[in-house]
Amino acid sequence: MENAESHDTTVKRENGTNEICDVYDVYGNRTGKTFVRGEPLSDGQYVMVVDVWIVNSRDEILIQKRSKYKKDLPGTWATHSGCVMAGETSLQACIREPMEEIGIHILPQQVHKLNRKLRGKLLSENFVVEQDFLVEDAVLQEEEVSQIMWVTVSQLKQMASRREFYRYPEFFDVVRFLEQRRKRRSLQK
Fold first, then answer.
1. Least crowded by CB within 10 Å, which of 2, 53, 144, 187?
2. pLDDT in tens, 72-100
């Protein structure tokens, strides 16, 4: 999750280089320009980010607690997210980010695109990933994530009301996805 106003500060990649991102127009088209993450964008320029909602077969959502080292919202529970790197598709970022942050392997066939939302200078591509994952199998990237856990929709709503979980505009789209999935399952029985 990125702050819609500042889109976070420059973050060093594991190999020590800055994150280079493509510049997009408001419609999600690459402009042919790039920028170092954290640099200000001009009017009409946007950065593409992904928010990844991992759901299991019990309709629980895997959330992560942001590291205390994060500039934006340290210690806040959130979904898995990050910038789409230069030359990368949003689907590739959807698969890469959770792998980097918690060590979960995602296959393209597990991914469902929800929507795209405009939040300030962010074009947020939102995905639901259907996968069971054991929390004890996680390999946390300490500078990004301090903890993960599965929660129910009800628990997540309570956490959001207490401002423990970041209030994502697409949260209710995820809830709708889960409700539709439950209906499909009941019709198949």
1. 187
2. 899 999 999 999 999 999 999 999 999 99
Question: What residue type is 116 in one-letter code?
Answer: R
How many C-beta atoms surround the C-beta of residue 10 within 10 A?
11
Q: d(Cα 100, Cα 105) in Å, to the nearest integer?
A: 10
Sign (positive/negative) of CA torsion 152, 8, 145, 15? positive
Q: What is the pTM of this model?
A: 0.88
Per-residue pLDDT of 136-147, as tens digits, reads 999 999 999 999
Q: Bridge-partner residues for 143, per DSSP?
A: none
- Backbone Cα Rg of the chain: 16
User: Where are the chain's structural domains?
Assistant: 20-188
Please tell me the distance from the alpha carbon of residue 37 to that of residue 21, in angstroms, as a whole number: 6
Instruction: Give yes or no for a contact between 132 and 54, defined as CB atoms under 8 angstroms apart.
Output: no
Q: Which residue has the tokens 């789409």?
A: 84
